[in-house]
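Students often ask what a 'structure token' actually looks like in practice. Rather than answer in the abstract, let us consider Phosphate/phosphite/phosphonate ABC transporter substrate-binding protein, a protein of 333 residues. Its sequence is given first.
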Amino acid sequence: MKLKYWLTVSGACAAVTFGMAPVAMAQECGNRGDLDTLYCDENKDLVADTPTDPAKLKDPSTIVFTYTPVEDPAVYEDLFSPFVDYLADCVDKRVVFYQVQSNAAEIEAMRSGRLHVGGFSTGPTAFAVNIAGAVPFAVKGYEDGFQGYNLIVIAKKDKPYESLKDLKGQKVAHTSPSSNSGHMAPMALFPGQGLVPEQDYKVLFSGKHDQSVMGVNSGDYDAAAVASDVFNRMAERGQINKDDFKIIYTSAKFPTSSFAYSHDLKPELRDKMLTCFYEYRFPDSMKQAFDGADRFYPISFKDDWAIIREVAEAGGQSFNRASYEAETAKSKK
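Now compare that with the structural description of the same chain:
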């Protein structure tokens, strides 16, 4: 019988700074791209290759799994419980759920080897790939495709704002520097709509999407850039009344949170685990929570995250280590 454990770790304890991370020699590499020096991409698929040295492959007795802290991590404890039990039986190993408090803590956990597979928010997925050797393999989805979301800008219905241009000089919330819909997409897309962040308004970081929504609801912010799926889930749970808000901007569709494994898992374990993910069908509780998605749909980071990388490049940003350290430091100010 497999045992399931829930590990709760504070953001401060979960995060491991680069200075404290395990020391490893950079490998000889013909192609690396934006990957950190610990990783190599000889086949040019933009993710870290599986180590060729058998001594560097991991076959853990306990698989550590988590889900992105886009909202309160405790929300997903019970939600993923049936899947955690299923995965333990499917791979014939103990599986634990590792509750992280921030995107940075999740990325550092995989980089340091304490996390083997997990869900990463859309923007942080690219940082996880380059900084932590994460290999995205799935997105929540349906039989005919993966689930996506839009960047939306919300305001209270009684406010006079009708377009992004109306937000000049107002209090506008972004979520965190590494968030795609909460920061990077607004920085890249808003100027084309006549609104330049940090020029037409001062960017105010709320920390999370749900905190941005609640901040608009309470009047702390005049408007906020958030992910449409988070906003809709909050309305469905009764945390907010959707009729109290209006949406003054909607972007093109982005892929939602990815699921990624650590690049150095033993191939036999990795392949078995991926089969388990792809064959799983969500119970009603997960389908309801994830807007009807019923499975883990296969994706390619190179192809399906192209739009995310394009947004970053349009905003003059990248997903390398230097950018990650700069953005993480910025979010702490």
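One point worth highlighting: The mean pLDDT is 88. Ask yourself how you might have guessed this from the sequence alone, and why that guess would often be unreliable.
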